Amino acid sequence: KVQEALDLEERQKKEGLKKKAKHPGNKAQLEEVWEAEGFDRSTFNPKTFFKMHDLNNDGEWDDFELEAVFEKEVDALFEGFEDVDQEEKDEEVSRMREHVVEHVDMDGDGVVQIAEFSRVRQGKGIRSRGSLGYGLRGFLH
Fold first, then answer.
1. H or E element in which residue 112 lies
2. What is the pLDDT of residues 101-137, one digit of tens each?
3. Would you call 9 exposed, middle or buried from its count of C-beta atoms within 10 A (0-12, 13-18, 19+)?
4. CB 93 within 8 A of CB 65
5. Residue 73: pLDDT band by 50, 70, 90 thresholds?
6. How far is CA 59 from the centre of its chain?
């Protein structure tokens, strides 16, 4: 019974964690990454942010580059949990990446080009093929 109660408490904490997660790709989430990288939040520049995270300088974010943007946030979300394994963190990072690709990748090629990123940042287009529970509104704010 004690173990069941502990397990229930841990599950409830993880459910609360999902509610605390910022909408992947929204301005607040990206600004937080910007700030964690040593920049002042008030100087956030989406184009510069994109180029900084375009590690191979090809003008697009692939799976690896997108996931790198979300890794620190996921690490922070799971901080303080006793029984979190890397696979669980990887699943959350992957879910965030899939969500962004699903709603930002306008041409459906599986990567996010700087033009697509800029278009969505300006509120000029969001592709919707479903939802992973984060909603769309966050891309515009």
1. strand 112-113
2. 988 898 999 999 999 988 876 655 444 444 334 443 4
3. exposed
4. no
5. confident
6. 19
Contact 94, 73 (CB under 8 A): no
Tell me the residue ranges of DSSP E strands in 27-110: 60-61
Neighbours of 24 (CB within 10 A): 26
C-alpha to C-alpha distance for 112 and 57, rounded to whole angstroms: 13
Residue 139 and residue 88 in contact, taking contact as beta carbons nearer than 8 Å: no
28 pLDDT tier (thresholds 50, 70, 90): confident
The tokens for 100 are 């962004």
Structure tokens at 48: 């510069």
Instruction: At 16, list the tokens.
Output: 């609360």
DSSP state of 80: T
Question: Do residues 24 and 99 make contact, with C-beta atoms less than 8 angstroms apart?
Answer: yes
What's at 123, amino acid-wise? G
